Each structure stands twice: as structure tokens, then as C-alpha cells.
Amino acid sequence: MRLIWWLTTVGAVSLVCIALSERGSITPVHNLTLTVSSPVESVLRDAASPVDDIYNSITDHGSLVRENEDLHKQLEQLQAQLAGQQNDAKTIQDLQNALGVKGDHKDDKLQAASVIAQETSGQKRMIAIDRGLSDGLDEGMVVLSEKGSLIGTVAAVYDNYAWVRLLTDPDSAVNAQVNTGVEQPLPAATPVVITGGGATPTPAPTADATATPAPITSVRGVLEGDLGANVILDLLPPDAKISADDLVMTSGLGGNYPAGILIGTIKDVQQRPESAFTSATVITSAQLSSLETVLVLTSFKPERLQSP
Fold first, then answer.
1. Are residues 34 and 84 part of one domain?
2. Do residues 165 and 305 lie in contact, with contact meaning Cβ atoms separated by under 8 Å?
3. Nearest C-alpha neighbor of 290 from the set 172, 123, 146
4. Which residue, of 77, 104, 131, is where some domain finishes?
5. What are 69-102's pLDDT values in tens digits?
6. Among 63, 78, 107, 232, fewest CB within 10 Å belongs to which?
7. What is the chain's mean pLDDT, rounded?
8. Domain count, the chain
9. How far apart are the C-alpha atoms of 138 and 38, rounded to whole Å?
10. Nearest residue to 257 (alpha-carbon basis) of 131, 113, 142
């Protein structure tokens, strides 16, 4: 019964409020309510503003993080594309250099290979290349730099790769020679003669066509590795007339290397009176520590001569 009276009362009050609202009778009350509540609403809005700013900042930060990640991904993709282009350009350059060397060795067969690994124990100086038995490589084959100087030999060969022993490896030994000889000097210039008509020009000095050029001789030794950046040319004659910057090349003795392949230049000579031999430090022409592309001389088969 109470519920019925309560519903009836609420309904009646609602009808009265609707009727008064349509006539505008409660407008003053509504204005008064707004006037009273407006300052409170402003205070609450100001109090909530920092929270709203924090929320917006968090939302914006998340958006910036996502944009930054997208930019990093785009940058990485562009860098990968650039690296690929540079690698292609380097490959083309390496092949061009290899072809240039091949042009200088028209009778030789050269197999270009890329360096894929190096021995890291510190006890050896070896590199791995991406050519093997399937490419015609064999143990003992001579390996050259892009420019055609000696860097080592194939030490072990597998189906698709091989290990190359560099000249600086302690187990490396190459029969080498240094070509020595003194060039024929030019004759001294004739002094200028002063006459009444002025100075008589002195003709340019010319070499004597009948003069016999000094003979070029070869000083032979054994080139050995020592784990350093340079190599040692040992077992030279004690009276060897060699000096810094002389060229060192293979001698061809022993049958393991063709004669005349450039190895490097003499750095300094160690002549010890108490020793039966002279030794010299040799700077290799190829930068053995930064090899990327090498050439395997597949047309030369080592003789592997046996001791008598």
C-alpha cells in the first residue's frame, strides 16, 4: 500500500514540475542552481586539468614512441638496402680487379674466392675461402692477392671451402730470391766553356752504348713466417749484397711455387759476423690482415719434390 502511495506522489510531483517548466515558472530556480554550482564546477575542472594533461601527455608519448619505432625500422631498412648496394659495388670492383690480374697472367687459370673466416687461436695464420674441391682446388695450390702478389698456399681443401696458410704462419716456408745488381751510371757532364760569344751549352749526358751493364744476380734464401706482420728471409749468404726496398720474389726452387711471383720488399738486413748466414725482414706486398678477395692459381700443380 505504501508503494502505491509513493508512486502516486512521485507521479504527481513530476506532472506539476513538467507543467511549471512549460510555463517557465521554474526558470529562476534553474538560474539560481547554475549560479551556485558554476564556481564549484570551475574549481573541479581546474583541479582535474593537470590529471587530464598527464593523461593526454601519456597518450601523446605512446604515439611518439610508436612513430619513433616506425622510423627506426624504416632507417634500418634503408641502411640494409645501402649496405646491399655497397656490397654489390664492392663485389663488382673485386671482380674487375681480379680480371685485371688475370689479364697479366694470360697463360694462368685463376679462381677468385672470398675470405669467409680466419683462424683465431693466435698460433696460426690461416684464412678460409669459399672455394673447394667442387671448384677444382687442390692442396698445395698457390694463392695470390687481388694484385697478384703471393699470400700463401691451400693447406686443406674440402668440398665447398678451403683453408689457406698465409706467409706469416710459422709452418710457412717459401724458396725466395732477391735480385741484385748495380745500374750503369751516366757519364759526368762536360763543363760549360765561356767564350767571347757567350756560354756554349753543354749537351745532355747520354749513356755509353758500348758500356756493359752490370750483371744482375739472384740471392736466394728461405722465407719463413713468425706470426708477425712481416716475414723473415733466412739462410742468405753472409756476403749477400742486399739492401732495403729490394724486391723479393719466389725463386721456383723446390717445385712448390712458380718463379717470379712478387712477395714483398726488404725492410732491413741482419748481418751477424758469428753466423754462417744473413737474414732480412721482409714486408709483404699484400696486406695479409685485411684480405677480402683472393685468387687461387689452379693452373699450377706443385711438384712436391721428394728429398734424394
1. yes
2. no
3. 146
4. 104
5. 567 446 444 544 544 554 455 555 555 565 555 5
6. 107
7. 73
8. 2
9. 96
10. 142
Q: Give the whole-angstrom CA distance, residue 289 versus residue 152.
A: 13
Residues 186 and 161: beta-carbon distance below 8 Å: no
Distances (CA, A) of 166 to 16, 94, 211, 294: 108, 20, 44, 12
Q: Which of 113, 124, 95 is nearest to 162 (CA)?
A: 113
**One domain for residues 117 and 178:** yes
Position 133 confidence tier, pLDDT thresholds 50, 70, 90: very high
Cell of 52: 587530464
What residue numbers bound the domain in which 248 lies?
110-186+214-297
Say how far apart CA 77 and CA 99 lie, in whole Å.
33
CA angle 153–159–162, rounded 5-degree value: 25
> Which residue do the cell numbers 726452387 mark?
253
Which three cell numbers, joined as nine digits, stand for 268? 732491413
**pTM, rounded to two decimals:** 0.59
Question: Which of 5-19, 136-150, 219-233 tops mean pLDDT?
Answer: 136-150
Check residue 298 and give its pLDDT.
Answer: 93
